[in-house]
Specification:
The model has no long low-confidence stretch (mean pLDDT 83). The radius of gyration is 22 Å and the shape is globular. The protein is built from 22 helices and no strands. It has a single domain, classed as Sodium/glucose cotransporter (Up-down Bundle), CATH 1.20.1730. The protein is 76% helix and 0% strand. By secondary structure, it is an all-alpha fold.
Length: 505
């Protein structure tokens, strides 16, 4: 990289670390975990967007458009449909119960064992998610710099973990806001540069792309193996989004940090608006790259672009970093690298922070309260040590992910789907079924998780199908098993909570 690019990256990292240092002063447990419940709608919405729209999203939306079609854009429809459910079901429940963790609700509704099960699923889900995000970033950084992917993973992981230790949720959220604007601006700068180099207009690029793809936007064929089938994208993305934005501590922690329930709802709408900007931008970036490599395929390999992609589908993951490395002027490559670092840091810092929260609140405080330190200083020392341990686990898993033969999209979904679908089922059964019982749900969710995990590694199905498979198995098994046990009276269904004048206890 040119020294100007190195300078741009250094300045960006310096600003982010400075923010972490400033906001990290005078921490308390409440400030570290929920920012004293004082955040506004801008920080809530953009932080949710930047956190859950990670570096693997940055990579695989573009790679999908370059290598196959724009059918992945159907995810926008799914995200739009799931947002009102998050706003009017999940957010009001968390606000009414005034919890510190999403999984506290499950103990109130079922039993402490279900709280521990859900918290455990979340920990596995988020560590896998952080690993896939770091892996995605490593693929791109390695393609731009030539450094081995494993070395990149270790470096990025160490930086992200070190930054996370410096500040609490307030620092993480404000950093996410900056990172959102950095990678959004970079997307459109990249599109401009590609169009400028190719000499083509946006309309010409889209026209040529549609001419070369028989199925560009929609493919309604029912198939478990079809890549980017519309039904798989719609159903899988809807469940994935509902799990991520409604039942996942990463998003819930941001709702809990808001000044009010209304603030959280506005933040959820802002998150959706951000998706409608970023996802089309990334897909069109892939379309532009397709136009470039159609005329200059030698940058990726021998033969035409179609022949190269057919022989090695994973090469689509290399399209963006290769173009940046070969054609970006000094300074812009550094900006692109900063955007990529923004995506990975917003994923890892939030993931590590939320996993540390769950382990502290749902496991240590609830199951082993005698282990809680007596002073705030000792408590913060415990949390920061926990952050390091979680970060190391994520780094190790990301290094293992480099051995997979799958592309970034498949790795990302396979490391999350087996846990996310059953976790969502657990919440929906609790909120909307009085008949389900804790023992039946525990067995149903556990069996569904294990079965989905086995299918995931033994079948060659399109990865998005594992979301409805895991979710559906957990829902059906849990409900059927509940029919063989005696119902238990509860005051914690959705209707009970929302109709109650007082906060249930």
């Amino acid at each position: 990289m040119h020294y100007i690019d190195i300078t741009v990256v250094a300045i960006y990292l310096g600003v982010i670390l400075a923010l972490g240092f400033v906001f990290g002063q005078h921490q308390s447990r409440d400030e570290f975990f929920v920012a004293s419940r004082s955040m506004g709608w801008l920080t809530v919405g953009l932080s949710v967007m930047a956190t859950l729209f990670s570096s693997n999203s940055f990579a695989f939306y573009t790679a999908a458009a370059l290598g196959d079609s724009l059918r992945l854009g159907a995810a926008l429809i799914a995200f739009t449909l799931m947002t009102p459910i998050v706003m009017y079901v999940f957010i009001p429940v968390y606000a009414k119960l005034n919890v510190n963790s999403a999984y506290e609700y499950l103990e109130k509704r079922f039993h402490v064992s279900l709280r521990a099960l859900a918290a455990g699923l979340f920990v596995l889900l988020r560590i896998g998610w952080m690993a896939s995000a770091t892996f995605a970033a490593a693929v791109i950084v390695s393609g731009m710099t030539g450094f081995p992917e494993t070395a990149v993973i270790i470096t990025l992981g160490v930086v992200a973990v070190a930054y996370t230790m410096m500040g609490g949720l307030r620092a993480v959220m404000w950093t996410d806001v900056i990172q959102f604007f950095v990678f959004t601006a970079t997307i459109f700068i990249t599109i401009y540069l590609i169009l400028d180099i190719t000499g083509l207009s946006a309309g010409k690029v889209m026209h040529d792309y549609q001419q070369q793809h028989d199925v560009t936007y929609i493919d309604l064929k029912w198939s478990l193996t079809e890549n980017y089938g519309t039904w798989a994208i719609l159903i899988g993305s809807f469940l994935e989004g509902l799990s991520a934005f409604g039942a996942d501590q990463v998003a819930v922690q941001r709702y809990l940090s808001a000044k009010s329930e209304q603030t959280s709802k506005v933040g959820a709408l802002l998150n959706l608006a951000g998706m409608w900007i970023v996802i089309p931008g990334l897909l069109f970036m892939g379309v532009c790259l397709h136009a470039f490599y159609t005329n200059s395929p030698e940058a990726l390999g021998e033969g035409t672009l179609e022949q190269i992609l057919d022989s090695n589908p994973k090469i689509a993951d290399k399209g963006m970093p290769t173009f940046v490395r070969l054609h970006f002027p000094p300074g812009f490559a550094g900006l692109f690298m900063a955007a990529l670092l923004a995506a990975i840091m917003s994923s890892v810092d939030s993931g590590v922070h939320s996993v540390a929260t769950v382990i502290t609140v749902d496991f240590r405080d609830r199951l082993f309260p005698q282990l809680r330190p007596k002073s705030d200083a000792a408590e913060l020392m415990f949390i920061r040590l926990l952050v390091v341990i979680i970060g190391v686990m994520s780094i190790v898993m990301a290094c293992i992910a480099t051995l997979f033969e799958d592309d970034i999209f498949a790795v990302a979904k396979k490391l999350t789907a087996a846990f996310g679908g059953p976790l969502l089922a657990l919440f929906l059964l609790g909120l909307f079924s009085r008949r389900t019982t804790s023992g039946a749900v525990f067995i149903g969710v556990t069996v569904a998780t294990v079965a989905t995990f086995i299918l995931m590694w033994t079948q060659k199905w399109f990865p998005m199908w594992y979301w409805p498979i895991g979710f559906g198995m957990a829902m059906v098994l849990s409900y059927l098993l509940s029919l063989f046990s005696k119902p238990v009276a509860t005051q914690f269904t959705y209707a009970d909570i929302l109709l109650s004048k007082d906060t249930p206890s």
